[in-house]
Amino acid sequence: MKRKVTGKKIFMVFEELRGRLKQIIYDQDEAIDAVVDAFVHLAYKPLEMPPRAIFTFLGPPAVGKISLASALAGCLAEYAAFKQFDMEQYADPESSMRLLASATVDGLPDGELVRFINAHPRAIVLFDSIDQADNGLQLALLDLLTRGPGEGSVDCSETIVIFTSTLGGALYQSKGFLNSFKKEKLRAQALVMDAIANEKKMVFETVQPAIAPKLLSVLSHHHIILFNRLSLDAIVRVGADALQRLSEHFMAKSNIELTYQEFDELVRMLTLSFAPYINVKRVKQKLPDAVLFKITQFIRNAPSYPSKVTFKLSRQAKSFLARLNRESDNLPQKLFKKNETVELTWKEYARGGQVFFSIERAELTRLPTTKEYFREERPRVEFSTLGFAEIAGNKTTKNTLRQIITLLKEPALVRKFGIDMPKGLLLFGPEGVGKTMLGKAFATEAERPYLYVSRSELFDPYYISSAFQKARQFAPSIVFLDGIDLKGMVEGAYANLPVDQLLIELDALPTDPDESVFTIATAQNKAEVNPLLIAPDRIDIFVEVPELDKEARRFFIEKILERPNNGRIDVDKVVRYISGMNGYDLQRIGKEASLHAIRHGLDCITEEILIEQINIIKYGSKLEKKHFHNLEEELKMTAYHEAGHAVLSCLLLPDIKIEQVTIAPRLHTLGFISYTFEDFPSNVSRAEVFNNICVLIAGRVASIKKFGDKGIDSGASVDLEQATHQAYAAVASLGMDREVGYVHTETLTQNVSRQFFLTQVETRVSSWINEATVKARELVERHWETIDTLAAILIRQEIVDGEELLKIMRADAKKGGKDAAHIPGEPGHA
Question: What is the CATH number that goes with domain 625-816?
Answer without folding.
Answer: 1.20.58.760
